[in-house]
Specification:
This protein has one domain: Ribosomal Protein S5, domain 2 (2-Layer Sandwich). It has three helices and four strands, in the order αβββαβα. It has a four-stranded mixed sheet, with helices on both faces. β3, α2 and β4 form a beta-alpha-beta unit.
Length: 115
RNA sequence: CGGGUCGGCAAGACGGUCGCGUCGGCAUCACACCUCGUGGGUUGCCGCCGAGGAACGUCCGGGCUCCGUAGAGCAGGGCGGUGGGUAACACCCACCCGGGGCAACCCGCGAGACAGUGCCACAGAAAACAGACCGCCUUCGCGUGAGCGAAGGUAAGGGUGAAACGGUGGUGUAAGAGACCACCAGCGGCCGGGGCGACCCGGCCGGCUAGGCAAACCUCGCCCGGAGCAAGGUCAGACAGGAAACCAUGAGGCUGCUCGCCUCAUUUCCGGGUAGACCGCUAGAGGAUCGUGGUAACACGCUCCCGAGAUAGAUGGCCGUCCAGGGCACGCAGCGUUCUCGAACACCGCGUGCCCGAACAGAACCCGGCGUAUCAGCCGGCCCGUUCC
RNA sequence: GCCCCCAUAGCUCAGGGGAUAGAGCGUCUGCCUCCGGAGCAGAAGGCCGAAGGUUCGAAUCCUUCUGGGGGCA
């Protein structure tokens, strides 16, 4: 789960991240990362369309993605907006699969701060 | 014991770890008012609470809010046995009628087809108002004759169809026919009895007989003003105006039309800005025990109980143990069937081991219903069959 | 939150109580041509989205679902 400060909360931010951000494809997800100023903390947003399933299924997928994001949070450099779009296949994906996909996407963009 | 039918209950438990949201408390950091406190906010810790029986579909009915009071008529829409319940309903209860079932019980958008209009394909002579294709019968004419033609009487028989103008039997007749008779079905009227009523029971009389479809238009009776919490309100913030028409209407409230009422007065078109916070926002036609009234739905009274309120949207992610139960294998015992007579097969019970292991589904203003989805279960009423006492 | 529309042949659509449901494109076969296209002739392909009801009779009327598409604030 994520605190309010770590969530993208306006439609404008979503639009900017998806249009201007770097895109990383994976079998179950598409991740968009956009660099903003260093002062703001890392913010996550999730897009789960109706094509994924009914409300219960969509909620489960979104909560899994939130849990993955929460665990990744301490490793990330501040000043990034990240939007994760869940594809219909993500219903069958296990938690470890999703975790791997997001971690790889963040690595590729270089948003992680290596200690 | 087996089968059926109706109703109700419940919607896994415990733990580890990492987290989220509202509210409350303490602390903390800046800030505003302002003068030693108050207000909202940041961060941290602690505590309480945190999805459903359908939260779903949005098919109905309400509350609530705004449209000045919620106005009139038409149009439009809904409902349709009777009586009751309810805030209201298309819901519920009881009863009536019709249909199904041995029964418990189930099913029915159940007013009107002598107010009118329309439709009834194909087949058939004829499809709604009477008529007559093949027949049957009488008379006359023609013909040696089989027969043919004309006039008339019939509707018993034939075949078609979902449906053919009462049915069966008899009298009668040239042949026939409710023409007449008996019984039956059905229609109308009157009388008596029962019921609040739909309706039921019985008797008498009449004419002998009336098609179906209103989930076709329609008629009758009853009901319905419009929009919806993104309703509506308070505060803060942002921006840029331009063009055209013009003094008697124009626009809006108000989805269609007419009238009426009210409000605003410049109006129309193009362009520009905003998408923040707070209130509404959760205790209500609420639930439970008992009592009273009622066949029941339900109503009344007393006492007790209730603690989700998010807003890119919390109520969870990962893991473990157990449990209801299910599957497979092996062993033991019982019983049944088959036969080559000690084996094969099937069923149930017990034990051991392994494996699987919860369905449908996520609040967004709130209720009452309906409809739909739902793994594995539990409890009870009633009916039928079989056996035993 | 409220509301509307659609579902018929592989595709796009007609048909609004009486048909074993029709048109165009496409597919297949044959003719034509040296070959292909075009053209001509012919054929196949549908329990009309699902279930229930009204009716003698339903793709059509009614109800409830299923799956799509769209609109408003």
């Amino acid at each position: 789960m994520l605190a309010k400060a770590n969530r993208i909360r306006t439609g404008a931010d979503y639009r900017l991240t998806i249009r201007r951000g770097v895109r990383v494809h994976a079998p179950n997800t598409i991740t968009y990362v956009r660099r903003v100023s260093d002062a703001t903390p890392v913010r996550f947003g999730f897009v789960v369309s109706k094509a994924v399933g009914i409300a219960v299924v969509r909620n489960t997928v979104r909560r899994r993605l939130k849990a993955v994001s929460r665990e990744l949070l301490p490793e990330l450099a501040p000043g990034h907006d990240i939007v994760v779009r869940a594809l219909p296949a993500s219903v069958q994906a296990s938690w470890t699969t999703l975790q791997g996909e997001i971690r790889r996407a963040v690595d590729e963009v270089g948003a992680r701060c290596m200690p």
